[in-house]
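Think of the structure tokens as a kind of shorthand, similar to the way a musician reads notation: each symbol stands for something richer, in this case the local conformation of the backbone. In the example below we present two proteins back to back. Begin with the first one, reading the sequence and then the tokens, and try to describe in your own words what changes along the chain.
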Amino acid sequence: MALPEIKTILYTSSLGAQTRPVFRQAVQLAHNLKARVIMLHVVEPVGEMGRALIHSYLPDDVIKKMHDEGINRVLEQMKERLEKFRDEELKAIDRDFDFDIEPVVAEGQHAETILRQAEKLGADLIVMGQENTFGHHSPTTHHVVRQAKIPVFVVPTGKQYL
């Protein structure tokens, strides 16, 4: 039985300090498999208490404008990070290959949103970091691995790997 073809890789990023190994793996896999990469960053929604406080001080149109500007800032940060990572990684490996990564920002609880976006975007593989300094999977990684309907590639992000 042949393995399923991987055409789309969903690379999840917290935009934290130790995300470079995850990026490196996603890009290398995409190159080897000739797959496209979608970079996903999940933003948790404001809780009910915060929402009530915000609504008591600001009108709805201002809240929407602030929300949209915040999402656009995150997208711009992702694009800048991708350009920097791309340039530095290609120099480091002294190879020339082209890759295109589509940044996506989604709102919701991390694990559920990753799984929902993987399905929505037609991902064939999820690449994510371990995101825990003690050598264990974070609750988000653990949940995604247990619930995913597609393979999940977990990359250690501890200092020993950098």
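Once you have a description of the first chain, move to the second and do the same.
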Amino acid sequence: MWNIPNILTSFRIFLIPVMVYFYYLPVEIYPWKYFVTFAVFWVASITDALDGYLARKLDQSTPFGAFFDPVADKVMVAVAFIVVVDDYSNPWVTIPAIIIVGRELAVSALREWMAEMGNRAGVAVSTVGKYKTAVQMLALMGLLWRPNEYWVFEGWLLGPMLDVATYVFLYSATALTIWSLLIYFKAAWPYISDKKD
């Protein structure tokens, strides 16, 4: 059970409280806390991509990993959104966070129900869902970084640039979230409406 992919997934779970710890350090004493939080989340995101790749490459896929990996992903994303919603305290972050986390709960419940119906493959991860995850991770990285001093990068102020990019990613992820949710429910609708062939 404790192969390389599952160890990486476990490491991702371990990084979640580390991320929260750094995020809530007093910024007056630790002005670098946001960047460290971003770095921890970035490492966790890398393990998210790496564990699945290695499981396939090394032929180390296990039932435990198939269960544990999506749980680790969802907990990491939910916790990251909780801390940024708490910190930002504005509807421009809170509403997309509700949509994205709510979608994760809805799709998880839908997959569980479809598994009971014997057709979990009907709501397997879609290409849109994969794009949504990638864009969502970029948005969260920007929200967690939140430079408290504007850094100069090749003559540009990095803070404002990062803010714009972050909100573009956040609302793109929200749009992809809604789109992918509709795709999943469309696939499951014949079973939900009891009109399957």
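Compare your description with these statements about the second chain. The CA atoms of residues 189 and 195 lie 8 Å apart.
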